[in-house]
Amino acid sequence: MGASHTLDRSKTSTQAWEPPALEALRVGFIGAGRLARALSLALQAVGVPVVGVASRSEASARALADALPACRVSDSAAVSQGCDLVFLTSPDARIADIARAVPWRAGQAVVHCSGATPVAVLRPAAEAGALIGGFHPMQAFGADAGAALASLPGCTVAIEAPPALEALLHGLARRLGCVGLSLPPGARVRYHASGGYASQHVHALVGEAVRLWQSWGATERQALDALLPLLRGTLESLARSGVAAGMPGPVSRGDAGTVRLHRQALEAVDPEMRDLYDRLCRRGVALARQAGRLDADGAAGVERALEAPPDAL
Ligand SMILES: NC(=O)c1ccc[n+]([C@@H]2O[C@H](COP(=O)([O-])OP(=O)(O)OC[C@H]3O[C@@H](n4cnc5c(N)ncnc54)[C@H](OP(=O)(O)O)[C@@H]3O)[C@@H](O)[C@H]2O)c1
């Protein structure tokens, strides 16, 4: 394990927050999972020292510290005492408990990385004089640390903090090659839900497509081999043309006959799948109208096709 630097407990202070330069910022992590691995490796790669890690299990903390020459494994209290900036990277449900249990201090900042959890759950740290904030990268980090690390640059990071800490966190985001985003008050949970539509719900939609392949005996692998090139093309079209203008498919062409055939086939497989299809098509009609690709008559034709009751299909 790399343990060349020890946590400096003598630097507990009640002084006002005067963050050191990023190269001298002592960063710690409580929670050594997927996000902590990606973020700590990325910080090290851009010259920001990660000096301490604690986790529920020593094995996880050790695995993270082993990849970081300046980092040592310790308990949460020692990470707090020895670090200028502590990332709470436990599961969301544990953040408030950790915030209550750890002895925080003035002259440090405590930040969680959850998209939906209010920053206010860190209030115990604020009451002890620390600055508190949120630092949420809009990215999905899996178990493969290399892939997670590679997926960080270019991400948007939602930052919520008082001005002194906000400036530091924006500087960190820039140093990581990310785009810092300060959200308006009250937008945090909606921002996080938007990520679900661009990630989790894409899996759910592809899951529906795969179920259709499985309905004639094909495997998930066969389905993915056929669908992934389409999905990649869709992402490229989104990037190139935007949401409305680039939308393909029968709805955008006003092809009500094909919509009727789809509904019939889907109803036979699973009425809930047909119901989801109907809802998505209605969103598609609005997008096609917005893009000027569907006139009022075309839209009315598709909507009539969507209104046919299931027992008439
Ligand atoms: N993964 C992502 O894609 C992603 C993206 C953006 C934001 N986030 C946010 O990042 C945070 C961490 O998520 P994650 O995906 O990295 O989770 P994770 O992979 O499940 O890792 C969580 C880590 O926290 C440790 N832990 C659990 N309870 C603890 C406690 N009471 N005290 C200290 N450590 C504890 C775990 O324990 P062990 O020691 O047993 O391993 C594990 O190492 C969450 O707030 C999440 O919303 C995640």
Describe the 3D structure.
InterPro entries: 6-PGluconate_DH-like_C_sf, DUF2520, NAD(P)-bd_dom_sf, OxRdtase/DH_put_Rossmann_dom, TM1727-like_C_sf. Residues 155-282 form the DUF2520 domain. It comes from Castellaniella ginsengisoli. Residues 24-137 form the Putative oxidoreductase/dehydrogenase Rossmann-like domain. Helix content is 51%, strand content 11%. With 313 residues, it is of the alpha/beta class. The longest helix is centred in the C-terminal third of the chain and has 22 residues, at 220-241. The chain has two domains: 9-184, Rossmann fold, CATH 3.40.50.720; 198-312. Helix 12 (256-269) runs antiparallel to helix 13 and helix 12 (256-269) packs parallel to helix 14 (296-307). Helix 5 (123-127) links the parallel strand 5 and strand 6 (131-137). Residues 30-36, 55-57, 60, 89-92, 94, 98, 113-115, 136-137, 139-141 line the site of NADP nicotinamide-adenine-dinucleotide phosphate (NAP).
- The CATH homologous superfamily of the largest domain corresponds to NAD(P)-binding Rossmann-like Domain
Order of strands in the sheet with most strands:
3-2-1-4-5-6-7-8
Strand content: 5-15%
**Secondary-structure class:** alpha/beta
The count of β-strands is 8
**Low-pLDDT stretches:** 1-15
Domain Putative oxidoreductase/dehydrogenase Rossmann-like: 24-137
Domain DUF2520: 155-282
InterPro entries: 6-PGluconate_DH-like_C_sf (IPR008927), DUF2520 (IPR018931), NAD(P)-bd_dom_sf (IPR036291), OxRdtase/DH_put_Rossmann_dom (IPR019665), TM1727-like_C_sf (IPR037108)
Protein name: DUF2520 domain-containing protein
